[in-house]
Amino acid sequence: MKWLAASALIVATGAAVTTPAWSGPEAIPGVANPARAKQNWMLSCQGCHRADATGTPQTTPTMAGFVAKFLHVPGGREYLVQVPGVATAALSDADLAEVVNWSLVRFDAANVPADFKPYTAAEVARLRLKPLRTEAMTIRAGMVARFAPEPKQQK
Amino acid sequence: MSGLDKFSEKMTRRVARATSRRSLLTLIGGALTGAAVIPVLPVSRAQAQGHGHGGDPVAPQTTGNPQDPGDQTQCDYWRYCAIDGFLCSCCGGTASSCPPGTEMSPITWIGTCLNPADNRSYIVSYNDCCGKSSCGRCLCNRNERDRPMVRPQANNDINWCLGTSSAIYNCSTAVILGVALEQQ
User: For burial by CB atoms within 10 Å, which of A31, A113, A117, B27 has the most?
Assistant: First the structure.
């Protein structure tokens, strides 16, 4: 039984170490290590999307208060991983799933659907095999056009 | 004619009688030594001092903080581990701010550099300064973890003057964003 206690201790220690890094009231679903997710955001995303995910009109569309809306339209969940910057990021499948889950809650918690299931490494691995290329802009425009009647505000 | 011959012979003989060959050597030697001394004069030394990078006469800039060692006008300063461009420290700005009259690009490429003082990696953002023509001083090109052009988000050969009112590149800064996590 000693090994069981030891492993429980390790798990507890891990939780104690990772929890304080997230300042919110509860852990983000699908994010094992928020500090690691934030660092991967800084190293792989922030350069173009900026620290607050507001982007730049000429080059990078805003994510803040906007990105989780894609989860409400058909194909949006897939789009968020297949978009070139995500699909081709120099991150492992697990790290990529984690940083996507983290950024959805960090930058657009209000629009994350209540029944949202976090991305898994397996799902990300499958989706990123087919990255979007130049058609990404067109596909995005089509989805954004469907945002218009906001389901959240209709209620 | 003979008068001129006599005159020149008389003068030559007088000079030969009055001077020795040794004094001529002394004169020539003095001139040679004098010419050799000219580059040793302090004025000349100041001009020739290149301060390390291609002859750009820039005074050293250190923070004085033992946690941040090195000279920010030198390419081997620790934060410049992935920089490619002219150092803003030599262009009227600093390692983390732009020279007057330029605008810092909000779009950057971000990497990590190892600080020799505490042996920890720091997250560094290479913000370009834009809006004036190339500074041209202290060119520095180091490419730790630089990726080829097919990965543009991690390539430092790109002009990162994006999102600014002008796309004209002036110089590059290295801004610390935070401490990187320990390798897991």
Answer: A31
CB contact (8 A) between residue B107 and residue A60: yes
CA atoms B157, B153, B125, B71: torsion sign: negative
At A28, give phi and psi (nearest 5°): -85, 130
Q: What is the pLDDT of residues B118-132, one digit of tens each?
A: 999 999 999 999 999
A154 located within any domain: no
Task: Tell me the DSSP string of chain B.
Answer: -HHHHHHHHHHHHHHHHH--HHHHHHHHHHHHHHHHHGGGSHHHHHHH--TTSTT----------TTS-S-TTSTTSGGGTT-EEEBGGGTTSBTTBPPTT-EE-S--EEEEEEETTTTEEEEEEE-EEESS----SSEEE--TT---TTSGGG-TTS----SSS---EEEE--EEEEEPPPP-
Q: Note whether B176 contacts A: Cβ–Cβ < 8 A.
A: no
* pTM reported for the whole predicted model: 0.72
Count other C-beta atoms under 10 Å from residue A109's C-beta. Answer: 12
In a domain, A150, yes or no: no
Residue A137 structural domain: 2-145
Residue B148: predicted pLDDT: 85
Provide the CA A76 distance to its chain's centre, in angstroms.
12
| pLDDT over 90, % of chain A | 65
Pairing of strands B109-115, B169-172: unpaired
pLDDT score recorded for residue A52:
93
Both tokens assigned to A47: 């350069």
pLDDT higher than 60, residue A18: no
pLDDT reported for residue A1: 45
Q: Which of B56, B68, B84, B109 is catalytic?
A: B109
Q: Which tops the pLDDT comparison, B56 or A69?
A: A69
CATH of the domain at A86: 1.10.760.10
For this structure, is B109 an active site residue? Answer: yes
- Tally the domains of chain A: 1
Q: Does B184 touch chain A (CB under 8 A)?
A: yes
DSSP state of B97: B
